């Protein structure tokens, strides 16, 4: 494994994905939180959760199945026909979903978000999810081809489009939440529009039964896993809507959205590492996983440390004082997202060994735990209980997934996991101590930058030593 090439690809993919989350969920947050009332932002949190539900249902695990099956079809020259078949299946799925929502959409929406009107938010949510499928297929196909520049261009271009449309809608037309959703819709159009261009004349209106069965073999467990992951990550949001006002939901939603920077970084870095694993011979996989996990852990420690050290400044930058109560929530949720580092790599092992059902079972158990903890903690502890329930469920998922991967390979990263989490806890404690000193702003920022520089130097030295030991 070429570590330098892996790091450069991971950094570029990470930059592209981080651009999307930064624009859609971070850089525009100051405008969102100041253009919307706190209650309206709470409605935005609820609608985003519903968009996630429709996205998982419409994608049906197909983009992830493409990532696993693409190389098999490329070997025999049928990758374009295979992708055409996936698009045809999606068309049928979309028609069925729209029909079901026409009959029961009002009842479903009211059960999910009783305080949010169904019109225009249900139609916009479905449209965003539908374009998201085509966008995901385009990006994954390009990643499988190793076309890093094209991936970055599409994702950064989509992020820029979101920023432009959101600014127009909020600052000039004052369309509020509807304007934000229209901006998200516009942001998906660029990547979604790339798919028909990439297929061109090779598109065929056909759905071979053997390919469908092969795809569903992977897609259905992945879909179940995605729904389980949604409940793991968003069950607290759904439960909170029935116990707290929209203003309090807004605080939790903001902290969760900021913490997702770590989650998105982990996924994007991991997706850069996965193709090398999937394309490797069986005897090479254990060493590749072992090395990739260490690379990913170092990258994620850097991202999560930055979020923790500057958490106070981030909150002050992106939101009014009414959201300040989310600072502690952010620290807890960053730890939850950091655990994805080890879960992602152990899941890669399970998928490589064709054990998707095992991966799904782990996610289901963790989702059930998240719901149970949420039902116990949220009624009494509200948003703090929601954060603790989410973190505990993510941690349990990490431990069980690692244990299952160890049973297959005889190799585990429990020592690295314990060391990394201890280091992250120490960083969070140090950041909290610095923020509690009451120093002048200039002195506080100087101390935090010095802390960050020392940490970056330490991580770099560790990386060099790991690279030298594998040379």
Describe this entry's structure for a reader:
Helix 9 packs across helix 15 (356-409), helix 11 (285-309) packs antiparallel against helix 13 (327-338) and helix 14 crosses helix 15. The termini are close together. This protein is mainly α. It has helices spanning 3-27, 29-35, 38-59, 62-75, 79-112, 121-144, 148-172, 176-199, 209-240, 246-278, 285-309, 311-318, 327-338, 340-352, 356-409, 414-435, 441-469. It folds into 2 domains: 12-207, no CATH class; 218-471, no CATH class. Helices cover 86% and strands 0% of the residues. The longest helix has 54 residues, at 356-409. It is a multi-pass membrane protein. It holds the Pfam family Polysacc_synt. It is found in: Cell membrane. This is Oligosaccharide flippase family protein. It comes from Roseateles amylovorans.
What is the structure about, briefly put?
The protein is an all-alpha fold and 471 residues long. It is built from 17 helices and no strands.
Fold blueprint:
Layout: H1 3-27, H2 29-35, H3 38-59, H4 62-75, H5 79-112, H6 121-144, H7 148-172, H8 176-199, H9 209-240, H10 246-278, H11 285-309, H12 311-318, H13 327-338, H14 340-352, H15 356-409, H16 414-435, H17 441-469
Protein name: Oligosaccharide flippase family protein
Transmembrane segments: 12-33, 53-71, 83-109, 121-142, 149-173, 179-199, 211-232, 252-274, 295-317, 323-346, 358-377, 383-400, 412-435, 441-462
Subcellular location: Cell membrane
